[in-house]
Structures are given as C-alpha cells and as structure tokens.
Write a structure and sequence with these properties.
With 363 residues, this protein is α/β, with parallel strands linked by helices. The chain has 2 domains: 6-101 and 311-360, Rossmann fold (3-Layer(aba) Sandwich); 103-302, Rossmann fold (3-Layer(aba) Sandwich), CATH 3.40.50.720. Helix content is 38%, strand content 15%. The strands form 2 sheets. Strands 1, 2, 3, 4, 5, 13 and 14 form a 7-stranded parallel β-sheet that branches. Strand 6 (150-154), helix 6 and strand 7 form a beta-alpha-beta unit. It binds glyoxylic acid. The site of glyoxylic acid (GLV) has 7 residues, from loops.
C-alpha cells in the first residue's frame, strides 16, 4: 500500500515553496530556535520521511534512531556540521545542502565586517549617537586603509574566492590557503609547487594576483584575515592561541564561516592582550551565546549569523532545498547531494509513496 510522504520543515519557508512541497506530501513545520532541544527535534520529526533543516538543528545519532522512516535531509545552508554524513550512510539517508547561491551575500557580509572593523564604524556611530561629537578632529577614530594591505583568506572555495574578488577591487594583496593545505599542514615549497600546476591556483594568480601559501605564512603576513573554510574535524579550533600569536599586531580577524573553527577563549585573550587589532564576527563557538569579552570590546564588530541573510539569497537557498527534495522524489540525483554515492541504493530502498496525493500544510 502506498503512503503519503511526510515532510517536516524546521524554520520558516516562503509560502509558495511550502505549497510546492505540499504537492508531493504532507508538510508540517517547527519554527523554534530558542531552547530547541533534541526532544523537540524528535517530537517534530519522528514520523518524517524528509526533513528540511538549518544549521541550528542538531541531527544527533539519537535523532536518527528516533526517526526510523527518515530518508532525506535537505539542509538550508552550505555548512552542514550539524549533520554527520557517516551516520547517514546506513539507511541510507540522502543529504543535500545549498552551495553556490549564497557566495556573494556571504562575501559581502565578510567584507562589510572587515571594513567596519578597519574603519571603526560601529564605534563612530555610537560616538555620534552618544552626543560626544564636537566637530572635526584630526585624530578622531583613526582606522586602517585597505589598499596595498594584505588579506589572508583561509579556504579559497566559492565564498573565499568571492571575498578575494572584493579584496582585489579594493587594491589589496591577496594570499590564501586551501582546505587541503590546512589538513596536510603543508609548507610553502610544497604548496608553491602544487599551485604552479593547479588550474584554479593559476587562474587566481592571473586574475587576482593571489598567491597560495601555508597557513603559517598567511597568519604571519596578513593585515586582515578572513575565514571561509567549513567546520569539520580538521578545522575544529584551527585558529587558537598559537595561531593568534603568529598574527601581526595590526591584524583584523574576520569570521563568517563557523564559530567552532576558532578557539573563542584564545580569540578573547588575543584581543585583551592587544595581540591583534580587532575582529569582525558573524559566527560564535556556542551560538547564540557570545563571550563577555567580545560583547564588551569596542574593537570587535558582532553580527548574529547573517552571512547569507539577504532577501534574494535566503529565498534562493530555500528554493534550492525544496527543489532538491522534489528532484530526489522524482528519482533524480540532486547536483547538490553531499553523499551522491548512496543514491542508487537510496532509490532502491524507497517505500512505495503516493506522490500524487495533495498534502495539507500544518504547523
Ligand atoms: C550558513 O551559515 C551556511 O552555512 O549557509
């Protein structure tokens, strides 16, 4: 007997996209962020065939065990460190994310944080609002310029290279290290040899004058450092006390990747000791909790994980996630599947589902 596909949406989806999902299954949603615990996730998803998730929805082994029908997770984000792909192999569960549609929005925000911290715009805004401004002063709120300075980009994927293009527009010198270099702890000679033959490295050199270097060299020579690597076991606390100690005293540190790539206590100590000049942060180790030191520091610009939060990008992410679900249900492998290898087995394992019955949207 065929059954109706049960689809659970975490967070909010635009109405037209909810309606598209409702054409293929029964859709319910849970839009709770504050205080969301494993039991809430299980209660919402225990009967689900498919869930649409966001980075704050932790898909633990207990969640998977409590959701025996779960066949697909469509993550509305490019980062997916809330989902362990190995745990999804057995059933298997198809996992998709939303790469490609949020590169410009995220690079825009990273660059905005860099400029805001560099030119002390939040301090300046507060200065005016607090009524301190008495007229033009030659040495008031002096910041640092970008032209001719070096930016170090950690992770030169889609978002990292979008950041590099922005930096080039501001006449900055660009160095970067690639995820593989971080993992292998490669040195500059090995990296230069491989950059000489790698097509992408050659293109970035030609188009942006960008130079691939080791993480150590990047940390030592950059005036601005921006993180664009995923959070995984190789990058957990990648930037900690030893790495901050290598940075220049005038360095401005920007993170729009994931909070867990940075040892936040070490960042606080580096700021307190004046080891770096300032920071622009969109992500935090224990989101939404932010360290007291960061909350108090006037040389730190804070944002609440809004890297991809433009109207058009958030719609595009939601549409990509919904299209991935529709495509998979139609028997086609979505291009953005993170575990493409499981697809043949996944397709064979599909229960007989009634995709023609219109489902009701409930929340
Ligand atoms: C947002 O944090 C994302 O990973 O897309």
């Amino acid at each position: 007997m065929s059954k109706q596909v049960q689809i659970v949406v975490f967070g909010k989806l635009p109405e037209d996209l909810m309606a598209r999902l409702a054409e293929v299954g029964a859709v319910s949603s849970l839009d709770k962020k504050e205080g969301l615990v494993e039991a809430d996730i299980i209660a919402a998803a225990c009967a689900a065939d498919i869930i649409l998730t966001e980075p704050y929805v932790q898909i633990t082994p207990a969640v998977l065990a409590a959701c025996p029908n779960l066949r697909m997770i469509a993550q509305r984000a490019v980062g997916y460190d809330n989902i362990n792909l190995d745990d999804c192999l057995h059933r298997p569960i198809l996992v998709t994310n939303t790469p490609g549609v949020l590169d410009n929005a995220t690079a825009d925000l990273a660059f905005a944080l860099l400029l805001t911290a560099g030119r002390r715009i939040v301090e300046a805004d507060k200065y005016v609002r607090d009524g301190h401004w008495r007229g033009f002063e030659n040495d008031l709120l002096l910041g640092c310029e970008l032209a001719g300075r070096t930016i170090g980009i950690v992770g030169m994927g889609r978002i990292g290279s979008a950041m590099a293009r922005r930096a080039r527009g501001f006449s900055m010198d660009i160095v970067y290290c690639r995820a593989a270099d971080v993992k292998d702890d490669a040195n500059d000679e090995t990296i230069a040899a491989s950059a000489g033959v790698d097509e992408k490295d050659r293109k970035w050199k030609q188009e942006l004058g960008a130079r691939r270097v080791s993480l150590k060299t990047l940390l030592q020579h950059s005036d601005f450092i921006s993180l664009h690597c995923p959070h995984n076991k190789d990058t957990e606390k990648l930037i900690g006390a030893p790495q901050f100690a290598l940075m220049k005293k005038n360095c401005i540190f920007v993170n729009t990747a994931r909070g867990k790539v940075v040892d936040e206590d070490a960042l606080c100590r580096a700021l307190e000791k004046g080891q770096i000049r300032g920071a622009g942060l969109d992500v935090f180790y224990n989101e939404p909790v932010v360290s007291e030191t960061l909350l108090k520091a006037s040389n730190v610009v804070l944002a609440p994980h809004i890297g991809s939060a433009s109207e058009e990008t958030r719609y595009a992410m939601a549409a990509l996630a919904v299209n991935s679900v529709l495509k998979a249900l139609a028997g086609t492998l979505p291009d953005n599947a993170l575990n493409k290898d499981v697809f043949d087995q996944w397709r064979k394992n599909q229960p007989e589902i009634d995709k023609t019955r219109q489902g009701a949207v409930q929340s």
